[in-house]
Amino acid sequence: MTAILRRLPVRVSACSRVLVAAGGVHTPLAAKAATATIPIVIAIGSDPVKFGLVASLNRPGANVTGISFFAAELEAKRLGLLHELAPRLTVAAALVNPRNANAESQSTELNAAARTLGLRFHILEASSELDFEAAFAKLVQNRASTLVVASDPFFFGRRQQLVALAARHAVPTIYEWREFAEAGGLASYGTNLTESYRQAGIYTRRILKGEKPADLPVVRATKFELVINLKAAKVLGLTVPPTLLARADEVIE
Fold first, then answer.
1. CATH number for the 2-71+192-223 domain, one of 3.40.50.2300, 3.30.1490.190, 3.30.830.10, 3.10.450.40?
2. pLDDT digits (tens, 9 = 90+) for 117-136
3. Would the pLDDT of 65 be above 60?
4. Which position has the higher pLDDT, 223 or 89?
5. Considering the domain 73-190+225-252, what is its CATH architecture?
6. What residue ranges of the chain are covered by domains with CATH 3.40.50.2300?
7. How confident is the model at residue 4 (pLDDT cuts 50, 70, 90)?
8. pTM of structure
9. C-alpha angle 42/190/212, rounded to 5°?
10. Is-contact 204 41, C-beta < 8 A?
11. Cα separation of 8 and 13, whole Å?
């Protein structure tokens, strides 16, 4: 088991009694495969029931509990917000990591949302940094005028590069986390990560004090935040609707 844990991604921390696994679904799955006895607290954007991490949200069952923050379930909402930011642009695209466990559901959700909005839509794929240039070249080839960067830990770790590429191609782009907007991206919409990890910390403390993961329901995130970068909007020649500004949790000027 020690060898398995040593190979887990860096967002896993362990003490003598609790494992904390955060990020993509692969890390919690590896942790669960490694031990059926050490308590595991997860903080992930995927549905933990769908991937067999827990029996149900209310009754997790074995040694796993934590928080699910809907990262992979907000793609349609992001596309809708992007359409509000750039309503005259009618060809959209999404950048999806085909290695992400949620890639198929993300693409399905985005295609359905695009049809509802009356947009022509294209899926672009990237699973390594080497794929980014080709994906943006395909975006240009398809004449896509807006872009959704789908929820993915790999994309989050390359946010500076993705924001720079979107700026170079002058394509209005919406992302998952506020860090993208802080890095110069046009907008982001997603769960408040600070609140999510705070909840994971609370559960870790409760387990260390003697409570069992099986008795702690998986928490579903309830706080979401919209961040708009007016500097980026100005460079792109976009006028952000006042109604959207009023709904934003933070406006970067």
1. 3.40.50.2300
2. 999 999 999 999 999 999 99
3. yes
4. 89
5. 3-Layer(aba) Sandwich (3.40)
6. 2-71+192-223, 73-190+225-252
7. very low
8. 0.84
9. 20
10. yes
11. 10
